[in-house]
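General statements about sequence and structure are easier to judge against a single worked case. For one protein, we set the task of working out the structure tokens from the amino acid sequence alone. The sequence in question and its structure tokens are set out directly beneath this paragraph.
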Amino acid sequence: MEGTVLDPAGGAPGAASASVMHRVRGVWRRRWVMLGVALGVTALTAAWTLRQPRIYASSTSLIIDVTAPRILDGEVKEVMGEERSNYWFNKEYYATQSEIITSRAVASRVVDRLGLSKDASFLGLPANQDPAERAKALEDADPVGLLRSRIQVVPGKDSRVMNIGVEDVDPARAALLSNEVAAAYMAENLALKLRTTEEARTWLEGRLDELGRQSKAGEMAVYDLKKDADMLSTSLESRLSIVSERINSYNLKLTEVRTRIAAQQARVDAIHRLRRDAGNDETWAEAVPGAKDGPIQDLKSRYGEQKAACAELTERYLPEHPKLLECNRKLDVVRADLLKSLSNVVRSAETQLAEAQGEEKNLNKLLDETKAEAFQVNKKAIEYGRLQRESDNNQRLYELVLKRLKDIELSGLLRTSNVRVLDPAQPAMVPVRPHTRRNLMVGWVMGLLLGLGVALFLEMLENSVASQADVEDVLGLAFLGVVPRMEATKAPGDRDLYVHRAPRSAVAECCRAVRTNLLFMSPDHPCKTLVVTSSGPQEGKSTTCINLGVAMAQSGNRVLLLDTDMRRPRLHRAFGVPNDLGISSLVVGEGSLDKAVKSTEVPNLFVLPCGPLPPNPAELLHTRAFKELLRTAGEKFDRIILDSPPLNAVVDAAVLATQADGVVMVLKAGRTDRSAAKRALRSLADVQARMFGAILNDVDLRQPRYGDTYLGYQGYGPTQDEPKGGVAPS
């Protein structure tokens, strides 16, 4: 694999899942912490459980029916009776009974009956308490609330059984309290029924008096209406029938009169036409209907006879003859009588017409008066019906309330209850609390959870790079290998050349593994120049640089170590060479590379010291002369390793990274801060430096966290020339 340009902001591929696994491994490393916390919590739970008082429980079983036994007739219903019987009603009903059992009313009955307000043992007061303090405590105590807190109601499944349980430190008192609570509940239930019945009776009595007054007022209103309508002997319906008959009679009579008027009107109209058509001829009256009656016929006969006699005398006598004059006089008299009779016939017809018209007028008047009377009777009937209905309704309500009042008075005399005891409570000798086994199990589980939380918390507080997972998952770098911790008895010079002087040690083997990984990073284009740096000081980058150079030199390569840390150079002290001529001298043109390069006791390993400390190291490394120095050294050596300053301290390492083939980061196990390492990587990413990977330095293989991961490295040491013990490299 080849080195890559790292982007610390982007993270490593698969970082999320790898981070989870990293947390899991971190928690597993702290499994003894988890176990210790779990044991501690379990021990505390056991101690707490053993200090708890023993609590005993007793239970009384009740059978609660929805309605009390029905002793009276089915029509006599109680005030609190309920005819419904469905699932939801029963559920609400039994839930209500549970609330009543645990109510203050029931608890107060038990406290008053047993005198619990003065019972120091029940109230939990110390036996040797001062009398004044005990009196004050008894005054401040709430025995009702204390008893309510000890009552538990457990309804039986799919049944009408209700279990009333009471807990107490005394098993006998627990049974007594349970039975007394059941008795108090039954008494309270009956008292509630009686109170409700009494309230209903009082209300019904008030309503009964009011309805009685209303019924009496309604009857008087009906009486006054009948009196005003003159209905003492007949009803409104009868009177309305009489008026209707009268209206029908008047209508029939009026029809007859109007028919007669039409006939009379036709007769009178005919007479008027005869009179108009006859002119001065007075004989027109003979054609009048009715002129042929007996008297008129006699007059007509006499008139004809007299007229014939006068005509006979006219032939015989002169006009002035007395007999003729007498005859004419008699003829005039008879004629006058005839005309008078005929005129009376005409006047009779006109009189009959006028009489018929007057009768029609009177009939119309009577009909109008009768209709008005009918309307008035109808109005009275409506008012009468309304008053009668109100009176009847008031009477029915009165009778209904009276009947209900009698039923309530009768049911109130009963003392039946819908609750009965199934099994009374008995003292139980086995305590229900504390549950020792359950508490210990809960304590163990809670301890494990708390231990897990502590382990996670410690893992979250762990902010150092300590394992391969930290390098790969957190920093996203390729892991090149580890360097175990060296023994503490070695002198500083011996530690620097430890790989050379102890080639069979675990440190030497790890360095050779790192060398192999680096060589295989890019087999087609092997790295020529390599920068070794760290995020901060004292992380072992110089020692790692020397060990890596020794391992490469042992493989047959000519290796040159460049001490580019121009602020705190160290390679010249490690190899015991002078520092009067070095990199700073060559950059400014003093001396030559061959004279500046020093050989070491390690074959094929050479070192180029820093030289005199310059005032401007970063600017010196930016010069063309330094680049030319690297190019010239590259022509003479197979590998060039640059020991650079820490990245977070100065910018020298970032400058060197742009001129080398790649960078290797040295991380001190358990000390290098993750955030500091990320800042260092970001500075390298800013200059587009190529990262080969990271080396985890100063790894203590004896720690539990490394025992399973790097177990294979421990097989190589310690050897005969390696005493046990370890110390961190500088």
Q: What stands out?
A: The radius of gyration is 69 Å.
